[in-house]
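User: Please run a holo structure prediction.
Assistant: Happy to. Please share the sequence and the ligand.
User: Here you go; the ligand is beta-D-galactopyranose.
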Amino acid sequence: MAMVERKLCFLFSFFSFLLLSGFSSAGNVTYDRRSLIINGQRKLLMSASIHYPRSVPGMWPGLVATAKEGGIDVIETYVFWNGHELSPGNYYFDGRFDLVKFVKIVQEAGLYLILRIGPFVAAEWNFGGVPVWLHYVPGTVFRTDNEPWKIHMKNFTTLIVSMMKQEKMFASQGGPIILAQAKNEYGDIERVYGEGGKPYAMWAAQMAVSQDIGVPWIMCQQYDAPDPVINTCNSFYCDQFTPNSVNKPKIWTENWPGWFKTFGSRDPHRPPEDVAFAVARFFQKGGSVHNYYMYHGGTNFGRTAGGPFITTSYDYDAPIDEYGLARLPKWGHLKELHKAIKLCEHALLYGESTLVSLGPLQEANIYRDPSGACAAFIANMDEENDKILKFQNISYHVPAWSVSILPDCKNVAFNTAKVGSQTAIVKMVPDKDGANLQWDVFMEKAGIWGEADFVKDGFVDHINTTKDSTDYLWYTTSLYVDENEEFLSKGSRPILIVDSKGHALHAFVNGELQVTASGTGLDSTFKFESPIPLKAGKNEIALLSMTVGLQNAGPFYEWVGAGLTSVKIAGFNNGTLDLSSSRWIYKIGLEGEHLNIFKPNGLNNVKWVSTSKPPSNQPLTWYKAVLDAPSGNEPVGLDMIHMGKGQAWLNGEPIGRYWPRSSSIHDECPPKCNYRGKFMPNKCSRGCGEPTQRWYHVPRSWFRPSGNILVIFEEKGGEPTKISFSRRLAKGACGLVSEDYPSINVESWDNISKFNGEAKAALQLTCPENTVISSIRFASFGTPSGTCGSYQKGKCHDPNSISMVNKVCLNKKGCTIALSKQNFNTDLCPGMSKALAVEAACG
Ligand code: GAL
């Protein structure tokens, strides 16, 4: 490059750096029928949900940067009321709940922010984000025209708004917040609330608008949102959505690029081709603000998971994985999509759309703006058949269920079904140094420890009793067995018959665990019948009832209870004994919880027993070990596959609930995921018959170099010697790119004319930080098939493929290999479309 060019280039990069990395300061935000208008300009916005308490402050800058690199303009978050207002008027905004810090990090990255205040949020978050104490404020009914609810909702909303105003966070004040949300998906259930529904929705809108924040308010799934509030769409697809006024822009607040998990369920996977298809269709049909819910799902630390049964991991199969790594190819594919759509921005926002039918399930939308710029989207909605579609006299190959994006109405910059991005080979690699931990042990008593909390004939509701101060509630009773009972002489066992509203239970008889039972994510109630050993004389029945995250959505969800409803024992001489109205003695929580033995300053409140051989398969046991930080700097997961169920802490920080509960072997996981056709959460599930969650994210920032204290509470029994840490490592990269894949990666779009049909496609591979491409495990230019890890050569194969790829890629951090004549024998197998597949190891 000539000197002058270099200088110009430098100056250009410097100014773009200032523009791109500078503080975001949106200024005036309004809207019209087409889009948000920021400082007088219509804007097409890609937004990404990242919930601040689902990671740690140390991760926030990296997550936001990875989102920005992925082509994201806006970060969206809910505000988590119950994480902030711990008891009435007692607020917490530190650590993972430092909302202002989070917003500032977004601002510093030069991105905008959408603040969904709710304050009811659903979100698979405990109690939908509403503080449990509010349910016990007399006369309160959530989410309806109810005075105590409205007073608290308004107070909290006002508090958050004032906080943001004070920090000058709204765009109208020069800050990054361009939109705020009141309520969440109320329109879908408004009718269930009868007379209280509509007036409440209107009150909420009016209350929000009266906060005078200087930027628009949105309400998702609120079909009757009154002006000026914008109603928005949440769904897997929102192309058919229209706002309730022609003067409002089409906004998609929740596009779910995956789904959440419950303990015992499969692992949902939404293919990137379908996510991209949905997004492209939305913009094709006039959308202008689109948000991924979630872009980074993260972790439900401690007891923040909603429920019942939402896992501690909130990975969501999102473009950034739970641990903060870009999920490839999803992240990369969407990045390319964002680039392609952004190339169309002006034509889309300032042009009018013309619809051209290209077949029964095929259509194009052309946007031409007054400056003459033209962009087109060609969609093939056929779920089975690829099509060659003739558009403006040119033929285009459009795969089934895909959209091609033509930023100049002629050249395809991107097709949603052609995934050119690399796939990362990511593994949880056991950390050797972490094994062989020395455990100290403290045993909980099976039943009432210390003084009983209260005694009552019959049952209490679990949640009304614990008020969610703990997951655990002991229900204990005793019964006297006459020595003439026949089962004693026969050596048989009576049957314990239990009914519960949920969520889980461990039943102890005379101090021994007999049976464990639980509901599921679909139905939290459960019943069981199980033989139990009873002896002549007095027998202690101690039932440890548990919640596994409180209900987080649905009409009147706050009234859904938990705990025992019936306990009987069958098999006595006189038949069945109903204990349901007997005298039950109650104790809320565990002794270890009460004494805070998982916190650094509570550790010495009990006498731990040091042991070189910790008991295994022993219920109700606390384990404590001192350990060094796992080696390296990669993200860390605690491997709990050999444990039963319980909770874990590191240095007092709440890792969360663990429960390697497996999905049923009868669940179905399709051997091959077909991205074509409408997505549903179970369509492409993985992990059938495997534990829903084996690893539990422990943020790096929670570790000190040495002297870390790991505390585990195991409820039903496990193998503590097998607890270990794993590091999340990207071990390699794969890619399979066809000659007919468009690529705006190789060169910038401005240079597209240079391609002249030559080498449009290229395969790009990159290894993670501090590693290089250490070997090429597979390379074939020709007709390779298979998926990453199991590629195979086809009939057509250029024998020089491996040496070519070695030459370009070996010992490099990353490489780009064009599918060109210069690189490969493109004359092979004439008439056939060829592809390049490569699998590389990183080390
Ligand atoms: C939506 C809700 C979100 C989240 C999502 C599923 O209905 O608004 O908060 O719960 O479903 O992940």
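Residues 121-124, 184-185, 234, 254, 260 surround beta-D-galactopyranose (CB under 6 Å).
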